[in-house]
Amino acid sequence: MFIYIAFIVWLLKSLSLWKPDHIPLTVLWCICVAFVRLLDFQKANDRNFFKKSLKDNIKGLVFLEFFVNLYVFKFWIEFLLVPIFTIIVGIQTIAERDKEYEIINKIIKFILMVFGSFLIFYVAYKIITDFKNFASLQNLESFYIPILLSMLFVPFVFFAALLAAYETFFVRLQFFVPEKSVLRYAKLKSIFSIRFNLWKLNRWSDYINRNWRFQSKQEVRDAVASFKQISAISNLNNEEMI
Fold first, then answer.
1. What per-residue confidence (pLDDT) applies to 157?
2. Is the pLDDT of residue 61 over 80?
3. Is a pLDDT exceeding 50 seen at residue 242?
4. Every domain of the chain and the residues it spans
5. Cβ atoms within 10 A of the Cβ of 58, count?
């Protein structure tokens, strides 16, 4: 993840959109946004993942970064805020996955809403009383840098989810295919047939789990052909419904 972020920073720097002054903002973004999104990479399985990710870039923690960097608090306050909210958001990410922790998720959302409301009123007051300081190039950069970083980070989250899905599928496949040569062939055939389509991979994994126990390479080819037929019919039906 950090190698990918370094590449993003290098790219933005080469386009004169990032400079060394943005290091504190970038570090804060890594802790509050990138790390949390990586923990919650399973959301990439949603077909609306890219659309939702783009919406998320203009709210939540991206705005928090902008506000915190717009009007700096005292050092000890900022020193406490970053780890506290990293832990809170991390707990919320875990709580959202299990209904058993729904009450915890609601409490955390309430805490974030209260703090967010306070922050908005605080910044609004500062803007009204000191508009000249607000309307500066530095503040504009503090706003767009986190958004650019978040947008460019989306593909990494998607490929992390794709890698995890392939890994899960291959582990499961080992229990269905006793012959090692057939297993290797099934893995390669899956990669070349599915490629980078995460949603198709999930359907393929479910299809194999329910219908096939490969004994030969021919059965793998038959399964691929059958799955393509089913997918074509499913896509046609969806188009007719639309």
1. 87
2. no
3. no
4. 2-156, 177-241
5. 11
Q: Which amino acid is at 196?
A: F
Contact 118, 109 (CB under 8 A): no
Report which residue type is found at 139: N
Q: Where are the alpha helices (DSSP H) in 130-179?
A: 131-134, 137-176
* 3-state secondary structure (DSSP) of residue 72: coil
Residue 224 CA to residue 232 CA, distance in Å, equals: 12
Over 70: is that where the pLDDT of 134 sits?
no
For the chain, the residue count is: 242
Distance of CA 116 to the CA centre of its chain: 22
Name the band, by pLDDT with cuts 50, 70 and 90, for residue 64. Answer: low
Hey, is 195 helix, strand or coil?
Answer: coil
Q: Where are the beta strands (DSSP E) in 67-156?
A: none
- Rounded to whole angstroms, the Cα distance separating 35 from 40 reads 9
Residues 20 and 73: beta-carbon distance below 8 Å: no
